[in-house]
Amino acid sequence: MTLCPIALAVGCEKCLMFKICPVKTVIGDQKKLKVVEKKDPQKSEEK
Predict the structure, then answer these.
(1) Are 8 and 2 in contact (CB under 8 A)?
(2) Are 29 and 1 contacting, i.e. CB atoms less than 8 angstroms apart?
(3) With contact defined as beta carbons under 8 Å apart, do 19 and 2 qualify?
(4) Model pTM greater than 0.90?
(5) Taking phi first (over 0 means left), then psi (-120 to 50 degrees means alpha), and beta for anything else, what does residue 33 get?
(6) What is the tens place of the pLDDT at every residue in 3-47?
(7) Are 7 and 28 in contact (CB under 8 A)?
(8) Alpha carbons 13 and 42: distance in angstroms, whole number
(9) Distance of CA 6 to the CA centre of its chain
(10) 10-8-24-20 Cα dihedral, nearest 10 degrees
(11) Of the candidates 4, 16, 45, 44, which has an alpha carbon nearest to the alpha carbon of residue 30?
């Protein structure tokens, strides 16, 4: 849910504080990044 007035008006990316904003995923319009673990091909071959 977007609560930030700047995010509502123009979007987070156009805000001057975008790079340092600690709450852009909480009250802004940015999505949270999901961490995807990559499988190591060398470990899967070792048996």
Answers:
(1) yes
(2) no
(3) no
(4) no
(5) beta
(6) 888 888 998 888 898 888 888 888 887 777 766 666 766 665 555
(7) yes
(8) 40
(9) 17
(10) 40
(11) 4
